[in-house]
Design a protein that fits this description.
heterotrimer, A mainly alpha (293), B mainly alpha (355), C alpha/beta (390), B: 355 residues, mainly alpha, two-stranded antiparallel ribbon, 2 strands, 66% helix, C: 390 residues, alpha/beta, Rossmann fold, seven-stranded mixed sheet, five-stranded parallel sheet, 13 helices, 43% helix, 19% strand
Chain lengths: 293, 355, 390
Amino acid sequence: MQMLINVLIGGLVLGCTYGMLALGYSLIYQASGYMNFTQGNLLMFGAFIAYQLYVVWSIPFIIALAGSLIVMFFVGWMMERFVIRRLVRKKAQNVYVVLATIALSTIVENAAMLIWGSNMKYFPSLYSNPSPIKIGPATVSKEQLTCIVVALLAMLLLHFFLNKTKFGTSMRAAAQNKMAASCMGINVNTTIGTTYGIAAVLACLGGVLVAPTMYVSYQLGNNLAAKSFAGAVIGGYGHIYGAIIGSLFIGLLETFVGAYVSSAYKEFIVYGVMVLFMVLRPRGICNANVYSV
Amino acid sequence: MKTLSDKKFSGKWLRRALAAGIFALVVLVVVMMENNILFARNRYIYVLLCYIGIYSIATSGLDVLFGYAGQISFGHAGFFCIGAYGSVLLSHSEWGVAKLGITPLPPILSIPLMGLVAALIGALLSKPASKLVFHFLSLLTIAFNQIMYLVVANFPGLTNGFIGITRVPPVKLQLFGATLLDFTAVKSKYSYVFLVMAVLAALLILKQNIVRSKLGRSMIAIRENQTAANGCGVNIMRAKTVSFAISAFYVGIAGGLLAHMVGFISPDTFVQNTSVIFITMLLFGGSGNMTGPILGALVITFVQESFQSLQDYRMLIYGTFLLAVILYQPAGLVGLGRSISGMFGGKGGANRGAA
Amino acid sequence: MKRLFTVLLVLALLVPTTLAVADDYSYVIGHYGGFTGAVATAGSNGRDGILLAVKLWNEKGGVLGGQIGVELYDDGSTTEGAVKGVSYLLDQVGVDGLIGSQLSGNIQATGDLVEAYQIPEVATGMNPAWLQKGWTYLFRALPNSSGGAAPLVDAMETLGSTKIASLVYQDDGNTSAYKQVKAVIESRDTVEIINEQQAMVGETDWTGALSAIINAQPSGVIIFAQAEQGSLMVKQIRNLGYTGYIYGCETFSSTDMRNVAGDAANGIVFFAPHCVPDSPEEGNSEAEIAFLTAWVEEYGKMPISDVAYRAFDATNVLLTAVEKAGTKDGPTVRDTIANMQIQLLAGPADYSAYDNGECLSGQQIYVTHGGKNIGWAKYLELGGNADTYK
């Protein structure tokens, strides 16, 4: 019983972290039709900025968090404005855009390494009493619970923003059909830029949530990015709720397989499931529209 | 009626002469190095040439898939891995087939054999891949790459896991007991580069023939407009499968050559990053032609070396450099070359400003 | 205009910038290591160790009547980089001696080259494998990891950890260290391994594996991993409620371990050739205190990884041998090293006692207690309390 609870919580935490990244992937794909490999390193960069504000400059945590979210929003926005938009305007092929995001990802990673050094940094606990709490027979750390709660809140906020606010609706409209949306008076450039910005903000939030349970280092993003892709694909690439469901599924799958089956082969199983979904059910769990060539 | 293509000194012949000239120059340089006239005792240049040659082979293979058939793959390091590990396991005196009691093959046989095996796996992979949209294909290939990496890393009984396998046998050509050629990587003058050059030349000629053939034309048709090609009677499935298989073959052979050159093999050569390097070289040099991949391999390798002096800033500058190239010159060096010759040549503006 | 600029840029970068070795160096050391990439922290510590050692030697007059130069090559922690790097150093630059990387894969990939060139190499890896291939020009300046297995199992027996579960990070150093520990355990029959888990490269969450381990209710847990992952594994297993002893390998001597894991790090028992303390005064010997003081003076803060010690020792071995031999000729220096005895930070080294390039055997056992690493003997004096983690 204890093991089950621990594994469940661990799986949820992992799933929420992947979810932050997968949401970014799906948002960007939905809005502009491109894949984006920078999310993982944006997560890392966001965590570093939060580290800088909270630990080095001793700013209170909430302000530090807000500060890093704002900074990352602009980073995402500027990436879109200066790199992606240029390439789109030149009608460059898909693969060039993807390669540009890979180059950006390398730049972000190495910039972080140069600014903050290559060794790991310790992100102190967010609570003054860091000891784990007990749920039934199991012990769970406070940071893990915070991660799950905040991530779910963020997803709810995103849902609210996209569906109930005017700007969110115009973003969805532009995502469905750029031409029609701009005929309606929607500034498509702004919405796409905002989408990238929001994706970066989500990545940053993911980074800040995961940092106290781990550490902050320039390698942080690489490890998480690949499996978040799997989550996005399984849930339906380009579908917002699919990204969340898929990531939670992957997080839980990975942790349960690691605990009950074998820790050696769990990577195989995760990638294998992804491949199976891609081959047998490319629309994913939530029936995303993926056949547009 | 005289057509443009009848001209004696048209661009095509000029380019062919240029290519032959460069090739002859390289061979001459290598021969001079061998005889101590130029770059005496400089094994470092040899090593670089070998790496450039191997990466050229791999990138040319990827070019068949991407430049001609228009399919993207971010996971070709998986085929690199199959070629390398396969060849090692078939030819090593202690690991692989030797453990089962079968006599190991000489590397000169195991490398092409594993190339064919890689081609087979490529064909199998392309079946699900050909149905997928572009970005799914890239994800599928990434997953393939990752799975191959996990396979060679997690079965220590088979591949010694992360500790790696040393004492990979060198490539020898023996006939009835007499050694005709010995491409031992380390012994005398690193003559391995001759082998790599020879294989590169042979594979380039093969590639030229493929792209000129009916198959090649169907691949280009698919790249330009898949629906129209289908309407013209091109068998899409077959063309895609074959292009995948061919690219896997090239990359597998490159992998085998690499393993036997270094003499040591371990899983961390075959990570995602290597696939990205292939793509980078391809796009940098220019895809869809003969010289582009080689130029790309050449320049990227040199750039990586000359950035050594920058130490910690190396990767950052490399990333910025790459981004600048993508933003300003997506057609790669070949596109650059065309526009330069377009600047000078007088073909009525046909090439001028082409990017 | 834009195109012209690109052309010029590309041409400018095509010229390989070879740092010409100035002729006024009487001996040039080459070093290939990972200053970027997977092991950047340890690699850059290693580089700094070499530079410090060379600086101290140069202040005392250098060697062979002149100053010592250092050529560096960043191999990015990959075997390709290592092969290119060693060819560059041996050929383009023409170094007289090599200090090797800490990654045994890179050492093995370049062993044949070094042997063919007849240049002595003192490498900083701990894996016994690369001295078992018959290369005569390769040496090690620290005890290899097989010397840690027996003392660690002794510690397990003393502390009463008879049921062991293990989590091993699957890279070459840690898998080979675990293999050796397992061999000792199996040969002795006093300790039993009840659960084995593996951690793949690239993972960051081991909840599944660790939950399975705790479920098996072991009395001791082996965790072998690099410092980055090991500190997290320790943190996670303590968060899951484990309070017993954790047995680790030399990577656990890194200060990062205690920084990241905090209180969770108490109760770790590990073997290491050196242990990096928190300040120079806590060094275990005069030589170590002097080394750490010089380090802090030069770099402003303490070293993070024990690779710094290894590289420092390796450089001293090489330069002492050159001085003794009175020449920089490769085979002569190699023979000098093979017969040398020298006092290192790692202990009294004797190359003549071994025939394959080793010089020391047996590792020290340390215990993390109260936020500090203390020696095994001292820990037993304190009572060897199994409640060290609370």
